[in-house]
Amino acid sequence: MTDSAFLTALELVIGLDADLLDIVGLSLKISLTAVAIAALLAFPLGAALALFRFPGRAPLIVTLNALMGLPPVVAGLAVYLLLSRAGPLGSLGLLFTPTAMVVAQVILVLPILAALTRQKVEELHGEYAEQLASIGVSRRRRIPTLLWDARLSLITVVLAGFGRASAEVGAVMIVGGNIDGVTRVMTTAIVLETSKGNLPLALGLGIVLLTLVGVINALAHLLGEATRRQLG
Amino acid sequence: MTRYQASTPASALLSGALLVAGLAVCATSAQAEDEPPFITLASTTSTQNSGLFDAIIPSFTEDSGIDVRVVAVGTGQAFEIARRGDADSLLVHDTAGEEAFVADGYATERADVMYNDFVLIGPAEDPAGIRDADSAAEALNLIADNASPFASRGDDSGTNRAELRLWESAGVEPGGDWYRELGSGMGATLNTAAGMGAYVMSDRATWVAFDNRQDLELLFEGDEVLFNQYGSLKLSPERHPELKHDLADQWHDWLLSEAGQQAIGDFEVKGQQLFFPNADGE
């Protein structure tokens, strides 16, 4: 079984199977878009949480941390009810589209990115707070400064978010519907092939997915190394 | 503090990645505008897992220019999707439920499309001895008396509803350690049954197309109570005026037409016909 799974994976990759390319492309497009949107929101949010003191800050941080464990299927169900025709945003007709899948994944990834960004920036701020205060940098101005300075750690944060997005199946299955050629991604294809009893193909797809995530992590690592070298 | 260069390779790459992601979103929405017309069909896992839709939808699309996007779920969930207005058309297999759906005003019309049958599957050594049963009711009684593991879908699907009706007519109230409700689709239930050597009721199409049988064998078939009818429903324009009723009607009519019935009858897996068209009421 395992042998044939590896062979299947190899055949799929070498043969550049057209369906597989579509599925892989859609997986990447959805998860990368979701992570990019989540990052745009989460970086400033996380940094602001690290720098500002306001009432309700502690509960907010705890909530964000807790939401890192939000079950994908719950996020999916919430987005389903939101986007369903009978729901508040039903008139947009977004259910069972890639956009709905991006929305669900943003909800899943945002807490992870924001919570980890908050922690990294807070650590960094502990080191530089006096220095920044002495040259009179306001707290608001410190946000971009500290985010930029934390960029190496933030790459890892983004990867954690991407890992979550590309690996989950519960949310995209519910809001995407696993429609062939439209909303079928790697993880939902694996579920489908498993339920057909086509286990070697399912495992083969799993191996392709893992390899892909590995490649992306390797690229991020190289990016980090390049930055580190440049900074000396 | 590090220096702030306007453009390091890292920032260039990061902004590049953001740009690509942004473009991807734009591309997706641009595609959406000039894509061909399509309908969303809520249907069952049995029809999808067997490969029926992959075989028949291309002929319909060729005839009509309409693509059919299938969301395959259990029949109970398919009804819920249609009730909420999230599908344009419905193809399921629970005649009683379908008629209630029409009576409740969610659909205007239901029609027989095709049928096949349910079969009882179990471990090859057949500990409960159902191979020689005279009826499905007897087979179920043998399983219950022997307390042999039985894997039930437990997901309010058409197959699950049919199974529960069979237990009822067999005079058995299933329960206890041996009766395991999985809450899974047909294929996933067969995988689990194979893993724990349990009996299971499956639709014939999923069983024939299923590849991970391990020790499972078809043990009982042929009782007329195992009949499995599939029906197509026209959803109500009054309940959900925003749906693509014109396109969905074309699909419904095509399924019942000679071309549609022919396509269903021609579909084979491993040399075996899995669905028998019966729109003409044969």
Automatic annotation (TrEMBL), chain A:
Name the predominant localization: membrane
From which source organism is this entry?
Halomonas sp. RT37
So which domain of life are we looking at? Bacteria
Q: Where in the cell is it found?
A: Cell membrane
Enumerate the transmembrane spans. 30-52, 64-83, 95-116, 146-163, 201-223
| UniProt KW Cytoplasm keyword | no
The protein's name: ABC transporter permease
Which InterPro entries has this protein been placed in?
A: ABC_perm_TupB-like, MetI-like, MetI-like_sf
From TrEMBL, chain B:
For whether the record's keyword set contains Signal, the answer is yes
Q: Which Gene3D superfamilies match?
A: Periplasmic binding protein-like II
Protein keywords = Signal
Cited Pfam families: PBP_like_2
Any signal peptide, and if so, which residues? Answer: 1-32
Using the record's annotation, list all stretches that form the PBP domain: 40-258
Name-wise, this protein is Sulfate transporter
- Organism from which the protein derives: Halomonas litopenaei
